[in-house]
C-alpha cells in the first residue's frame, strides 16, 4: 500500500503524505512515489499547480530512521537526493501546506517551494547537528541568505524546535494560517493560481526568480550531500542513532 495520496482537481495536483501513525516519516519508497507524482504532474498540461501536504497532525517528521539506516543515501542517485533535485528544478508553482510537525527534510524542502502556508500549531525543527550530521537540502546556502547568518546559525547549529511565526520571520513560510482552516485556505489559493492566473506567466516568473541562484544552489546541494554521506558513517552519527534506538541522550563529549 502506498503511503502517498495523489489527487487532481481544478488544475491542481495535491500530494499528501499518508503515514499519520508514523508522523508521515518518509521512506525510500515515499521519495520515489513523490518524484513519480511530481513528474506526472509536470508532464500533464491540465495541471498548473502542485500542492504538497501531510495527513493527521504532521506534515512530515523527516526520514524514517529505521528505513534510512537500512538504505542510507550514497550519492546523487539516492531517492532522497532525486526528490530534492526534482523539487529544486520544478517548473510549475509548488504550494506547501505545513499542517503540523515538520522535521529535517520536512523543513528544508520548504526552501524549494514557491509558497508555504504553515498551521499556527505547527512545530518545525532542523535537527541535523543533534544527529551528528550536517545541513542538507541547500539549507547551508539558502537559509543564511534568507534569515541572515546569525539566525540561520541558531536554527541549524542548535537544532531546536521553532514555531510557525518564526518560520515566517526567517523566510521559510509565506504566512501563518489557523490549523483548522489550512486545508481549505491552501486549496483556494492554489485554485486561484491554477484558474485565475496565466500558466506561462507563472512559470516564467518562477524561473526568473530562481534562475540567478540556480547554479549556486545546485553546488550547495551536491556539497552537502557529500559531507552528509561522510558524516553518516562517522562516530558521532553512530552514537546519535544508537542513542535514538536505545532511547537515551547521545554522549558527544567522547569525541573531539
Strand and helix map with partners:
Layout lengths: L3 E6 L2 E6 L10 H16 L5 E6 L3 E3 L4 H6 L8 H10 L5 E5 L2 E3 L1 H4 L6 E5 L3 E3 L13 H9 L1 H10 L3 E2 H6 L5 E3 L4 H15 L2 H13 L2 H19 L2 H12 L10
Parallel strand pairs: 2-3, 3-5, 4-6, 5-7, 6-8, 7-10
Antiparallel strand pairs: 1-2, 8-9
Helix pairs in contact: 1-3, 5-6, 5-10
Q: What does this protein structure show overall?
A:
The protein has 256 residues and is an alpha/beta fold. The protein is built from eleven helices and ten strands. Strands 1-2-3-5-7-10 form a six-stranded mixed β-sheet, sandwiched between helices. Helix 1 (28-43) runs parallel beside helix 3, helix 5 packs across helix 6 (149-158) and helix 5 (139-147) packs across helix 10.
The radius of gyration over CA amounts to 18 Å
Structural class: alpha/beta
Name the average pLDDT: 96
Label the CATH architecture of the domain at 4-180: Alpha-Beta Complex
Uncertain spans, ≥5 residues at pLDDT below 50?
Answer: none
CATH superfamily of the domain at 4-180: 2-enoyl-CoA Hydratase, Chain A, domain 1
Indicate the CATH class of the domain at 4-180: Alpha Beta
How many DSSP helices? Answer: 11
Short description:
The chain has 256 residues and is of the alpha/beta class. It has helices at residues 28-43, 65-70, 79-88, 105-108, 139-147, 149-158, 164-169, 182-196, 199-211, 214-232, 235-246; strands at 4-9, 12-17, 49-54, 58-60, 94-98, 101-103, 115-119, 123-125, 162-163, 175-177.
Amino acid at each position: 500500500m502506498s503511503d502517498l495520496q495523489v489527487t487532481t482537481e481544478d488544475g491542481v495536483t495535491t500530494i499528501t503524505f499518508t503515514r499519520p501513525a508514523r508522523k508521515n516519516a518518509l521512506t525510500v519508497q515515499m521519495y520515489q512515489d513523490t518524484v513519480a507524482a511530481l513528474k506526472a504532474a509536470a508532464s500533464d498540461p491540465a495541471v498548473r499547480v502542485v500542492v504538497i501536504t501531510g495527513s493527521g497532525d504532521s506534515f512530515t517528521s523527516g526520514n524514517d530512521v529505521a528505513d534510512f539506516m537500512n538504505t542510507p543515501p550514497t550519492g546523487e542517485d539516492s531517492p532522497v537526493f532525486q526528490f530534492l533535485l526534482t523539487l529544486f528544478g520544478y517548473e510549475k508553482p509548488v504550494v506547501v501546506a505545513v499542517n503540523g510537525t515538520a522535521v529535517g527534510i520536512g523543513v528544508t524542502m520548504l526552501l524549494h517551494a514557491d509558497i508555504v502556508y504553515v498551521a499556527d500549531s505547527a512545530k518545525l525543527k532542523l535537527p541535523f547537528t543533534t544527529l551528528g550530521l550536517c545541513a542538507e537540502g541547500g539549507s547551508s546556502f539558502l537559509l543564511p541568505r534568507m534569515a541572515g547568518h546569525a539566525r540561520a546559525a541558531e536554527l541549524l547549529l542548535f537544532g531546536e524546535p521553532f514555531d510557525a511565526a518564526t518560520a515566517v520571520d526567517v523566510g521559510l513560510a509565506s504566512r501563518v494560517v489557523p490549523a483548522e482552516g489550512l486545508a481549505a485556505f491552501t486549496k483556494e489559493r492554489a485554485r486561484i493560481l491554477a484558474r485565475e492566473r496565466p500558466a506561462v506567466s507563472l512559470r516564467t516568473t518562477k524561473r526568473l526568480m530562481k534562475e540567478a541562484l540556480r547554479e549556486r544552489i545546485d553546488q550547495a546541494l551536491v556539497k552537502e550531500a557529500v559531507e552528509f554521506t561522510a558524516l553518516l558513517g562517522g562516530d558521532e552519527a553512530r552514537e546519535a542513532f544508537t542513542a535514538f534506538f536505545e532511547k537515551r541522550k547521545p554522549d558527544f563529549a567522547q569525541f573531539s
